């Protein structure tokens, strides 16, 4: 079984396949071009410099390319860096694929799909159910592979679906506790709230923001899509607008990107459930990396707090 | 010529036609129902109580109904109030119409339409021009009658078109001063930026917010509409998204309702032109009501400031 | 069955027992003293004036006194007011008691106590369990009768226990969904987080802030109490301080009254669960009072928002 | 024609005159002193190190000195750096002057002066006109050469006059559109609003803040100067105070340096015109440096936004 | 000895001299004009209505007029109101003067002047001393009678001088504790910091803001005055600018009206001393009015807090 | 007499005793471990690298160890660094002790203790006096040695006591100026307000935050301690709670760590005195390091301002 780049110490030799996540061209002080590579496998990332590159090197060593690399783990300005001895692109005969090098949700795609289908079966309002089902059908492939965000929380393959399915579980329980809640509306809102990210983010492996993502953002894009979808399905009635409102308001406040705050009970609940699941995902993943008695690193998306793991945690 | 309710003094008799703007039912301390009417003509508004009403009265004296009213202007808790002696609904033979009682833009509809058409003729980018023209065609009637807002600025008949046409004049000059500016994009942004208000506001005479207006707001609605229109016209290319960005960002900041701030030069300029024209409209209308050496009342939409009219203004 | 003051219309006669919530002395323009009474039953409150009072009246008609009152519901400045014809204090033979006039949690005290006990049985960490049990024992009577707040949420008899028990149900489910969470710590935090309110609030029927509540607040008071209790029980170890931290940080931010923000996973979760249960309580109680298609009144504690009840809610 | 330092690539040789903008002494790890020079011509700036300097070197290579330098453009920590082979101060016979190395407004001084004079001729209020003319006369030389700011906008020779003249053009058009505006007052405000910068900034070539600029700032200084000037010219009347108010309030808000917000129509307009011209100057200069389809670098003075240049810009 | 309006109860007869502070004309529901008078003596204020007034009444009953009034103290909307039976303007033979009806500082003018003179004698820096002395001479009369503010703190006759003298006492002690402090600079700053209020406020008896006060504010006005005074006295050197900086920055922050924050040690100290003396004045005057065990009314200028007077205060 | 590390220039040899303040292990690019040492004496700090360390080295060269070190002062990335030639731990025979290397308050411990005792003698309220005396007795040793903070102000040995004693001097004077102030309460508040720091901070030489300090903070800890102490001393009455309130509110605002703002006169005054003494300590220490005509470095704890020392300061 593979060891993973995160587990190498300074000074150790490395000889394995690894994936290029980013490749940026620079010019050295001797005037020759070089590449700064960010390499990754499922355990983490490491930087490497490829010096004195040719034009062909630039065409070959690009993002999402797997390479066979041998070298040594060094340290540069306090951070590990991989010193390259030899490097070549992987070939089909190597039997490796991009999927092997990226982190995935702890739940399989099939199971995630099953949970989504189950929730849709539970829905009784035909309008909400039809719109929701139509979107799942339209985006099924991407929905099951995209991360929920470029960083911060659920930033792994199938992260978005994992996030949705966790939220649905929470919603189910909250509906049991507060039966006044309209479960259909809440489910529909949860499933659709972040689908705009499929257009906002550039892809699964090297996730960045698209131009559309930067200039419009996933929330207004998705509100527009729901309108179009309802037109196509010839669905009318307040359900459509209320569902758009849930998506529009799910960031909770204007300064967080929702031009309208939640003004419907299920919109408020959607916002809170989203918050809880995102925060628990971040917290659990950070606390996993520290021992009892230690603090995590500062978490930017949680007001830059460092969290403490009590000594009495059995880990 | 009519005198206008604003010009009556306390103690004077009133006997004229006037328009009901609002009618709210109450119950008096003697247990009998009454109506609180807000009456208006082009010069202003006044409150009146209609006591001991019948069921029929309630059906007749409703918003947008013109009435013939005779009575006296009194004062109640420091504000004028119209004491009703007799009141009857206007009849077709009276030769009065709602239009006679509402304030209008200082420029005629025909002239506003002409200016819009002129601007569209100036545009050279066919995509931007076609989308803009399609919207004007679709909404022409409402666009030429709606106010630009429920209160604060351009809150009169044709206020929206008046606002757009003033902004176009400013844009033309700014383009002359800063020729780098893309005039076509700026024109298109100006014409479309507030069209969502046609759905956000309930109407011309008694302007309030629609449910859709409250839950979604005019900005996301219009961004969605531009997307649909481009689909219908089969227009593709960055123009569509950039135009959506202009509309989306024209409030300037997330906390003011724009989930994305202006990130394109013409978007920034659209925001600033909108600000200037709205503020000048408010300021000029307020300062008109005071004499040199006086302060206006506090203007809520301008950070609650009261403005001073210098003594050396010839008014 | 009693009708409840909320259900009387203007002009109707009233003849029933009702509870005095507040009684304030004033002096009328004729120089004679009078009492402004706030009267309440389980359905709501109404104001009444008792004119020309004697010294004895002042001693008799005081808060928490039940009275037999006959009169008529009038309207004064837009609000209902009870015009008093006759009034006398209730006597033991009348068979009425304060408890009949105050709103209560929808779950019986016994059931609430049972749920608390159950949760304590689930706890495995002996230190956390002992402290929690000791507090429940110490404050059992008050804990089962106090409201959770003077207004806004769970502001009824047994409101505090009802709030705690709802939060425990949520916590149980969250622990199932995120098994990394330390359930014992979270349970202990939930049960103790608001116990300081038993000293911050003045009582069950006429709830206001005590001097201690105003100058210290329930959070620092409870942090101190946990320290004393641990000393008494001779419990040492990080559990005590972490539990104090949970109570200290449960308002989430310094500006909301927590000098330290949550820095332990269960502290963050406690804050979020508290938020959800308080908000759902407010929302559900407000939406109950409106029909589909209507907005609630503005809810001050929810950023002054008015919430919409969709037409498709079957209510 | 000269090429300009901005257009050299890494690895290229440089052999030309260039101006020293800053010179800071350091001590190398070998204990010997060196100079870090910031060199500039009209196209941009570059850093260079002059090692092992003598006392004489320190006296010669100072700010505002032109040097003949031959060397090579290298890269250091991701930024270009000029490696010095030989360097000597320019001599009178070299025929170069400081003026050749600093960026200038795109409009000639004479034209700027003409435009200022024209505006003053348009003014009808004799008090406002006399004060304005007196200031132009007093500061004419500096006014025509100073930048409008140390950085951000119009930060080039004659930048202040260029900024004023652009604002006057805008004002003229706004007065045409909103004839209620007092053009004389607005013109006077525009011409004087930033004259305090002549004392706040240290000079034209190496612009920094004077002590007076740091402790008092240009706004209070200029308000004081207007008062003195009016005394000298024996001008009385509200014009003086209103003009002081325009200068005082032109930053718009207390937190932006205006102890009073604009409280006169022309003060509000002055603030908005200043904003537009400053922003358009920044935006146009930044967008000039990027190709269609690219974003500019982040602009600190525009809320740190990066702006996008659409693909359909013909540049 | 006079009793003071504050000490009259509802229902009591009043027959005494009293001062008109404000007089506002209104029109009653019967169409006849009336005056709303605010009357005051040293103990407080009361409102009164003078019905059916003649043109002469309007000319006679104006602010700062003393009147002989007999009537009765009533209550109107929860507040005391003086019902007028008869009223006449005071005559010279009545032997009353405005001074008898306004609150004064607890220290006599002569003593305040003596303290100011003493402090100036202590100063050693001749420049600071000369400027300070020149201002005291120029404004002596007003300085010894004006209040320090229109409301909030030291809002009584000689309030400004009282405030300055208290601050000087504090400064003297702080200089003893922190001998690094430049006492001359601090003294000069204290004496001059609020002199601009002599132009910002309209007068001693009926204190409101002048137009200059509203549009420029006392801080920029005083900074300008110091500049002029130094010119007149032909004083040069950093002292002048530093003294202007102290005045400019004494509100501490831009949003509180100081375009520059304190950047000199004595400027920081001036700001803090001003804060302490203003706050102590407000607090002491409010706490004087409550008994141990009570809270004061909310103090707007102290973040709207109500302060508690402990039971163990002997009052 | 010792010279102090602050006074060495780049290139100079160093051969003296010095104290290790921090020691952090790293791994060099050659794979070998090294220590980054922060060394200090009373004049300042310097960094040093100890390469190729053994396991023993790690055990020996730890914080609070004095070492004999010879080497040379170099420069690394713009900051001085001590290049180590030889290093050995100090021995008992060397006659050096930790105390020689740390900065101390300018007043001796004995004098500080005397001042504290004096103040307690002045107190007349027996409850306040007994609690205060008990705390001084309990913490005497630590109180006389701890700094008042980890950085910013009074960050030296006996800093806390020095801060308290300065505040007491100020309080005494303020009481003279405002005799309404309850001196006993103010004295007690001053002496106890920061005692929680004895638990919040880790020690005198290498001061960092304890876990308890991070999770609870000194304010809530001290409020709890006062409660326990009063219980132990069997003191009852409002004094205890009011004293807790003073400690709780002394940071002035919720966002600065005080869940309740000052609501008692002496609480407000305590907050202000604390502010003045902390700020004067910071300012005086910074200004000591610059010459007249210069600015200090930016002071983070004073809103990041740099302060100017006027030319006319004789220093």
TrEMBL record, chains A, B, C, D, E, F:
<dbReference type="InterPro" id="IPR006674">
    <property type="entry name" value="HD_domain"/>
</dbReference>
<protein>
    <submittedName>
        <fullName>3'-5' exoribonuclease YhaM</fullName>
    </submittedName>
</protein>
<dbReference type="Pfam" id="PF01336">
    <property type="entry name" value="tRNA_anti-codon"/>
</dbReference>
<dbReference type="InterPro" id="IPR004365">
    <property type="entry name" value="NA-bd_OB_tRNA"/>
</dbReference>
<dbReference type="InterPro" id="IPR003607">
    <property type="entry name" value="HD/PDEase_dom"/>
</dbReference>
<dbReference type="Pfam" id="PF01966">
    <property type="entry name" value="HD"/>
</dbReference>
<dbReference type="InterPro" id="IPR012340">
    <property type="entry name" value="NA-bd_OB-fold"/>
</dbReference>
<dbReference type="InterPro" id="IPR050798">
    <property type="entry name" value="YhaM_exoribonuc/phosphodiest"/>
</dbReference>
<feature type="domain" description="HD">
    <location>
        <begin position="163"/>
        <end position="279"/>
    </location>
</feature>
<keyword id="KW-0378">Hydrolase</keyword>
């Amino acid at each position: 079984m593979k060891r993973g780049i995160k587990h190498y110490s300074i000074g150790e030799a490395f000889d394995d396949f690894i994936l290029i996540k980013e490749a940026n061209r620079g010019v050295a002080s001797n005037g020759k071009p070089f590449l700064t590579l960010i390499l990754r496998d499922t355990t983490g990332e490491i930087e490497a410099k490829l010096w004195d590159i040719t034009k062909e090197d630039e065409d070959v060593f690009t993002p999402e390319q797997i390479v066979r690399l041998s070298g040594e783990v060094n340290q540069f300005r306090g951070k590990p860096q991989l010193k390259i001895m030899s490097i070549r692109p992987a070939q089909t005969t190597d039997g490796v694929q991009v999927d092997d090098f990226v982190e995935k949700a702890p739940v399989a795609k099939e199971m995630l799909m099953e949970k989504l289908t189950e929730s849709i079966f539970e829905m009784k309002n035909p309008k909400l159910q039809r719109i929701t089902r139509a979107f799942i059908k339209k985006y099924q492939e991407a929905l099951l592979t995209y991360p929920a965000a470029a960083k911060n929380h659920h930033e792994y393959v199938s992260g978005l679906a994992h996030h949705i399915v966790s939220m649905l579980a929470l919603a189910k329980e909250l509906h049991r506790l507060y039966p006044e809640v309209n479960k259909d509306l809440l489910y529909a809102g949860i499933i659709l709230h972040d689908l705009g990210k499929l257009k906002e983010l550039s892809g699964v492996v090297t996730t960045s923001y698209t131009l559309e993502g930067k200039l419009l953002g996933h929330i207004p894009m998705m509100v527009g899509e729901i309108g179009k979808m309802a037109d196509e399905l010839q669905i009318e009635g307040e359900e459509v607008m209320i569902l758009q409102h849930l998506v529009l308001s799910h960031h909770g406040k204007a300064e967080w990107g929702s031009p309208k705050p939640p003004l419907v009970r299920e919109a408020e609940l959607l916002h809170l459930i989203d918050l809880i699941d995102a925060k628990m995902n971040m917290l659990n993943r950070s606390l996993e990396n520290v021992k009892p008695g230690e603090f995590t690193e500062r978490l930017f998306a949680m007001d830059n707090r460092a969290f403490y793991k009590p000594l009495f945690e059995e880990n």
